[in-house]
Amino acid sequence: MKILITGGAGFIGSNLAKKLIKRGHDLRILDNFSKQIHGNNQSLDSELDGVDLIIGDVRNKSVITQSLDDVNAVVHLAAETGTGQSMYQLEEYQHTNISGTLNIINHLLHNEHSVEKIIVASSRAIYGEGRYSCKKHGVIYPDERSEIEMSNGQFDHKCKLCNRNLEAEATPENARIAPLSFYGITKQVQEQIVTMYAKVLGISGYSLRYQNVYGPGQSLMNPYTGIMAIFSTLARNNQTIRIFEDGNESRDFVYIDDVIDATIKCLSPDMHGIESFNIGTGNPTSVYKVAESIINNLKKFLSGFGAIIETMKPEYHDKILAITSHLPHLIAYTIVGTATDLEDQTKHDVVRFSATGFRDFTRIASSDPIMWRDVFLNNKDAVLEMLQRFSEDLTYLQRAIRWSEGEKLEELFTKTREIRRSIIKEGQDI
Ligand SMILES: NC(=O)c1ccc[n+]([C@@H]2O[C@H](COP(=O)([O-])OP(=O)(O)OC[C@H]3O[C@@H](n4cnc5c(N)ncnc54)[C@H](O)[C@@H]3O)[C@@H](O)[C@H]2O)c1
Fold this sequence. Notes:
This protein has two domains: about 1-125 and about 175-225 and about 250-285, 3-Layer(aba) Sandwich (Rossmann fold), CATH 3.40.50; about 315-425, 6-phosphogluconate dehydrogenase C-terminal like domain (6-phosphogluconate dehydrogenase C-terminal fold, Orthogonal Bundle), CATH 1.10.3660.10. By secondary structure, it is an alpha/beta fold. Helix 2 (about 35-40) links the parallel strand 2 (about 25-30) and strand 3. The protein starts with a strand and ends in a 5-residue tail after the last helix. The protein has 16 helices and 14 strands. It binds nicotinamide-adenine-dinucleotide.
């Protein structure tokens, strides 16, 4: 059986392709290597070497014609996938997700073909907020929470009849379909197109409503990817994981291998028909739990290399880093910047007579400008607070020098020498 995977270079597609190859299937992959997901990389994972690859776009009808030649089953995964992004990039989402799907169906309707089955990737996003239950009033499909509720810190869905907090439930396939994003609408339309035309074409059609899929192979450069990838990238880069609301909002996180097994099950010759399936675990996990387990795993991993792990509150961490790392960089950039401003008169002499103090500052001031721009902009509050204190201390020193108050200078310099000594004593002088 020859299988076409559209979007086969992506997270789910490449994992699916690897498993199908191991099982001896003949594959073709169609993918346009979207820059948002792949950056400048235009090649498949090395485990997929030798797979029949068409680099092309599902929006292009002649690419679809070429891709469907001699194929028995299609797994249609190619899509724009960002929920938030879809709210303003309407045309991109419409063209790739809806028109791309129509191109496949249109080809099958109007041409001889060998396709017996089509599987389309749908999403939990078609359910919007999903299904909840009230202890007194049973199943409820709540509306989106209002801005007033959110700004009052009321994040739980409430029963409109008795004002009780609602409990999230696993959402069954026959639940109300009510997408809350344009992405969700395109997924709903994609699956309706596929399941309706599968009937017209007399072939099998499955729409797989994937929940939040995680695992190896997820694009870490796509800013619209899921929270697993975003949180783990932040944690690995020692950046703060910001959780909005109260962290109790829950999702069903499903591991990639289970998603692949479910997809392959639908490809098996003994599965015939037209149906939609939820692909998830059925268990809710809160966003807070996700962040916590990523941090715990990272701690375990780093401790394995002998690292000592400290845990601190985000505000405290930001303050400490502001004074120990961010401000020294800001001062170095300023001192070297001031010297550069005097360039015409001193350019050569600044370099020729640079004392070790100035040279140390130039080393710090040669750090990555883009990274430091982002550090300052993302840690505004803590940096501005430390900068204010620093300016006050600088004014104090300025006055002491102006009024020849040597004892004030000496007192401060003695204190600071102690800091240096304790750094050496702690073995931090490396
Ligand atoms: N990952 C999840 O958690 C999740 C959840 C629900 C549904 N889905 C659906 O599953 C499918 C696969 O998701 P994924 O996580 O592997 O996404 P992904 O972004 O990793 O992969 C999508 C692939 O499609 C390709 N592509 C995008 N636009 C294209 C176009 N116009 N023509 C050809 N190729 C194009 C991209 O280059 C990429 O390789 C998508 O349809 C997505 O909506 C994924």
